[in-house]
Amino acid sequence: MMRTLSVSAMLAATLSLANLAGAQAPHAYAGVKGCTMCHKTEKQGLQGPVWEKSKHAGAYTTLTTPAADSITKAKGLTTAAAASPECLKCHAIVGDAKADVKDGVQCETCHGAGADYKGMAVMKVRADAVAKGMVAFADKAAIEAMCKTCHNEKSPTAKAFNFEESWAKIAHKKPAA
After folding, report:
1. Distance (Å, whole) CA 49 – CA 55
2. Domain boundaries along the sequence of the chain
3. Segments in the chain below pLDDT 70
């Protein structure tokens, strides 16, 4: 009995160590400047300029207004909107120095932290970029699902969300091959 227990304990410890060794550290953010330095030309799909003109670019700024603070107060929150985790989760990336909250909803909000895939050599091979953390969407349904993680009835200012109409405002092309 003791021998079985020892073997079982060793097996459990070995599996735990293997899981820890195989666990990947979270990817780091590159920051919006790390993305837009390349993704600003027609060849690269004009993603940077599309984002700069979008409401996503100003998503954090909307939290700094008296109107936003009124909403948080009405919802029973005790902190200003710009400091409330409940608001920040959809209006900015928090917790990483490279992801400036002032950038609002930026590239890495949807495509994942980009420090590991931002290099040109990695980005040239889509599968390599995905392996290094880039979120690539298979189709519009996948994009819509991502959008609805914030654009939903849980938002204190929820409005009917029309994906096609909203996507038309922020659609950006894949870079040319």
Report:
1. 12
2. 29-170
3. 1-25, 176-177
What is the H or E stretch that residue 36 is in? helix 32-36
What are 59's two structure tokens? 């998503």
**pLDDT at residue number 24:** 57
- Single out the residue of 24, 26, 44, 25 nearest to residue 36, CA to CA: 44
Q: Quote the tokens at residue 136.
A: 């690539």
Q: What is the pLDDT of residue 121?
A: 94
Please give the CATH topology (third level) of the domain spanning 29-170. Answer: Flavocytochrome C3; Chain A, domain 2 (1.10.1130)
- DSSP state at residue 37: T
CA distance 68 to 66: 5
State the CB neighbour count (10 A cutoff) for residue 173. 12
Give the Cα separation of 8 and 10 in Å (integer).
5
What is the reported pTM?
A: 0.79
| Block residue for tokens 């993603």 | 47
